[in-house]
Recover the amino acids of this structure.
């Protein structure tokens, strides 16, 4: 997946659909650019220890959504995490082993772009548990699809089942004239061979994320079986 | 010695780190004595070799972003095109995004290295058998490749070398700065979108630059506004809820090089491997790019001999 922006958003949208029914955890392994805390409105929170390990941060009062991110471990959100692979790998191992997730129906792992240390670290640490599969997120542009092809190869090589591909930012509705345009950066249709689901992003003048996903038609198109 | 030798224990801090040989993870490692003595921390001879190789390269610019998908490679490619539009200049573009090399596609290259007579490109994308090949490498192997690119590619006489990076602040970035530390980098251009989630990561990128003493030439805000082709009204797809790059630059005392609006034709040009500066020169996005490029050229000329970065 090329666009970190879109796949963070996707993890959160998935939560909003599912959390009423399920106990969900999100593990944010984007160590250089952890956006999950901010996107769920809990960026000021800290992580504490308990007897069974690190207590995840809960994004909701009912504690149905547990989060772990390096974002919670930094004193200063502008602090740069300038780590080489081995150190990143070690922390991700801790996130998997030492966080007291409790009983979860679903653990979502949000990754940075690429096919490197973080991705390998997650798979290695989850090897003894079952990894149901991967959801790949792209936009319609050729450069993004180019990277998704490589992610597909990564999944094949590492034996991860591909649950599906989400094409984000498929279209854009101009709030002034309500004309729907194809993705603002790619007027042409993308190759359909890679697409299983299409997702449109709607916009409005307040551009409040809550408003975007509350639109019932939007939830319909995001819901994945 | 490699940064993390193959016989190193799980939490090896790295042979060049300050903890080398001294951290608790080092107990029992066969390299512990060597690391603790500091012998492993001797500067990599490649740095001096690269300094000699790069003596014929006048200006080196790193293009960074915090987040992915903000338009960094698009910007690097078009910066290269714009600089090379002056026939008297020789330009090189090096793509060190090893996992996600977009530069060949954006430059319309399948394998050749020369886009124009005076514009050369190098990317790991050229070394892959097929576009679907995934480079599933850990940090140390990526670092080795970057060292090879810098040391073994014959760049020749270049006025500008642009280095396109993957998003983040990790192996690739550290290696690029480390291996160019003898040769000196003029500075970094940081790309962002107006959103706070992007700016949040740009602030980290700026801290990285401060940490490794890499000057920041300025910040480019991409995808600033969208002009509807039908009704011509402007919308903000990514509203600057926290003031966008402008406020951030004011707060941090950095130069905002420019704001580039979303033009659907940029994406099409990139998908086709063409320069939209040539394809759509009348676009407000093209005008924004030209202003930004001029600022970068001015910065480089006033910075005639970049001081070697001390990292």
């Amino acid at each position: 997946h090329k666009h970190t922006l879109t796949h963070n958003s996707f993890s959160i949208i998935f939560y909003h659909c599912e959390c009423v029914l399920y106990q969900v955890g999100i593990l944010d392994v984007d160590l250089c650019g952890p956006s999950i805390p901010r996107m769920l409105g809990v960026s000021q929170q800290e992580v504490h220890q308990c007897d069974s390990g690190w207590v995840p941060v809960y994004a909701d009062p009912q504690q149905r959504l547990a989060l772990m991110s390096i974002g919670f471990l930094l004193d200063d959100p502008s602090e740069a995490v300038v780590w080489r692979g081995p150190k990143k790998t070690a922390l991700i191992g801790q996130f998997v082993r030492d966080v007291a997730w409790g009983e979860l129906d679903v653990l979502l792992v949000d990754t940075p772009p690429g096919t490197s240390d973080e991705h390998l670290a997650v798979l290695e640490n989850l090897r003894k548990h079952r990894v149901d599969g991967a959801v790949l997120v792209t936009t319609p542009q050729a450069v993004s699809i180019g990277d998704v092809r490589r992610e597909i190869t990564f999944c094949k090589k590492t034996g991860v089942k591909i649950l599906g591909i989400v094409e984000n930012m498929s279209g854009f509705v101009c709030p002034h004239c309500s004309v729907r345009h194809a993705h603002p950066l790619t007027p042409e249709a993308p190759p359909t061979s890679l697409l299983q689901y299409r997702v449109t992003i709607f916009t409005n003048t307040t551009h409040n994320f809550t408003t975007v996903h509350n639109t019932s038609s939007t939830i319909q198109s995001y819901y994945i079986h | 010695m490699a940064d993390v030798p193959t016989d190193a224990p799980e939490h090896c801090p790295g042979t060049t780190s300050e903890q080398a040989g001294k951290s608790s993870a080092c107990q029992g490692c066969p390299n512990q004595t060597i690391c603790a003595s500091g012998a492993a921390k001797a500067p990599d001879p490649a740095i001096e070799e690269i300094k000699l190789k790069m003596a014929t390269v006048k200006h080196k610019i790193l293009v960074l972003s915090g987040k992915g998908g903000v338009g960094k490679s698009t910007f690097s490619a078009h910066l290269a095109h714009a600089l090379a539009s002056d026939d008297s200049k020789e330009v090189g573009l090096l793509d060190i995004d090893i996992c996600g090399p977009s530069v060949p596609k954006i430059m319309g290259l399948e394998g050749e290295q020369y886009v124009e007579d005076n514009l050369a490109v190098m990317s790991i994308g050229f070394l892959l058998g097929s576009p679907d090949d995934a480079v599933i490498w850990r940090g140390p192997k990526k670092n080795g490749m970057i060292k090879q690119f810098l040391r073994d590619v014959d760049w020749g006489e270049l006025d500008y070398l642009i280095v396109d990076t993957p998003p983040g602040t990790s192996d690739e970035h550290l290696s690029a700065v480390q291996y160019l530390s003898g040769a000196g980098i003029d500075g970094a251009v940081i790309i962002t979108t107006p959103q706070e989630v992007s700016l949040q990561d740009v602030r980290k990128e700026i801290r990285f630059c401060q940490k490794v003493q890499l000057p920041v030439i300025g910040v480019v805000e991409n995808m600033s506004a969208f002009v509807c082709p039908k009704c011509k009204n402007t919308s903000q797809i990514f509203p600057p809820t926290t003031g966008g790059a402008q406020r951030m630059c004011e707060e941090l005392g950095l130069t905002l090089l420019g704001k580039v609006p979303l033009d659907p034709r940029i994406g099409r040009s990139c998908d086709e491997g063409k320069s939209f500066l040539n394809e759509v020169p009348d676009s407000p996005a093209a005008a924004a790019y030209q202003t930004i490029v001029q600022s970068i050229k001015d910065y480089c000329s006033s910075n005639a001999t970049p001081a070697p970065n001390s990292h």
